[in-house]
Amino acid sequence: MIIKPKKSLGQNFLIDDKVINKIIELGNIDQKNQVIEVGPGNGALTDKIFRKKPKNLIVIEKDEKLANFLSKKFGNQIEIINKDMMKISYEDYFGQNLIIFGNLPYNLSTQILTKWIKIKSIDKFCKKLILMFQKEVADRIIANSNTHNYGRLSIISNWKMNIEKILDIEPESFSPSPKIKSTLLVFIPKKKYYEFKDPKNLEHITNIFFNQRRKMIKKPMKFLFKNYEQVAKKLSLDLNLRPQNLDHVTFYKICEFYELQLTS
């Protein structure tokens, strides 16, 4: 049975055995691990994960035809969830030595990543994330301050995660071949990170700053804080700098001050 990828769902099936084997190697799966694969497509990676005999293998596939195909292929040896990956309650999988694999749809990749990162006590939720992104998105995720790719996505991604770029993947590794390269990233949850009362505050702050990324930070600071000059002084901030000049940690500290202001 041949399943054709749906353009409407952003489906591009990974067909490169070298890349698939590299992903499996990165997973270092054993019988203690529970594995979730989001967007399994036609099951090429699923099959290799299954052979590693994890404690449990769950695949999340929105496409009903693909879900049925995988059901026929694997039977009841794996759990298949035929739902939108954005509508799953991932908190249900806490404390299960979880590894997540995903060739994320380009149109949903940043949304699903942000959803995972905002999970409370993420280090107890999962062991690692092994994910593929459009190269342009991956470049933004791993960008450092003072670079043109640096912005909200990098700040939010690096808040709770140590991120490693593994390799760029050519379009020919997929069927159909996308017009752009992909990038494979590994995310390992940090044991210590800034604790915020509400992660939405970090999203709000970075949105305010990077909405006008070429403007000096005096304007967003003035918008966020009544006593912005005092806050800037405590953080040793030069108000003439631009948002891209501030490193990740500075934004986390700004968020701390912002939350203090909300409760005072």
Can you walk through the features of this model?
With 264 residues, the chain is of the alpha/beta class. It has 2 domains: 7-189, Rossmann fold; 199-263, rRNA adenine dimethylase, C-terminal domain (Helicase, Ruva Protein, domain 3), CATH 1.10.8. It has helices at 17-27, 44-51, 64-74, 109-117, 122-125, 135-141, 152-160, 199-210, 218-224, 228-234, 248-263, and strands at residues 13-14, 34-38, 56-60, 79-81, 98-103, 128-134, 161-169, 174-175, 182-189. The strands form 2 sheets. It has a 7-stranded mixed β-sheet with strand order 4-3-2-5-6-9-7. A two-stranded antiparallel sheet has the order 1-8. The longest helix is centred in the C-terminal third of the chain and has 16 residues, at 248-263. The protein is elongated and about 65 Å long. The N and C termini lie far apart (63 Å).
Provide tags for this entry.
Rossmann fold; 11 helices; alpha/beta; Helicase, Ruva Protein, domain 3; 264 residues
Question: TL;DR?
Answer:
This protein is an alpha/beta fold and 264 residues long. Helices cover 38% and strands 18% of the residues.
Query: Can you tell me the CATH topology of the largest domain?
Result: Rossmann fold
User: CATH top level of the largest domain?
Assistant: Alpha Beta
Backbone structural class:
alpha/beta
Q: What's the overall average pLDDT, rounded?
A: 92
- Computed Rg: 20 Å
Q: Can you tell me the CATH superfamily of the largest domain?
A: Vaccinia Virus protein VP39
Main sheet: strands, sense, barrel? 7 strands, mixed
Which architecture name of the largest domain does CATH use? 3-Layer(aba) Sandwich
β-strand number: 9
Please provide the ordered H/E string of secondary-structure elements.
EHEHEHEEHHEHHEEEHHHH
Q: Helicity range of the residues?
A: 25-40%
How many structurally independent domains? 2
**How many helical elements?**
11
What characteristic shape results from the CA principal axes?
elongated
| Relative strand content | 15-25%
Low-confidence blocks of residues:
none
Reading side by side through the largest sheet, how are the strands ordered?
Answer: 4-3-2-5-6-9-7
Distance between the termini: 63 Å
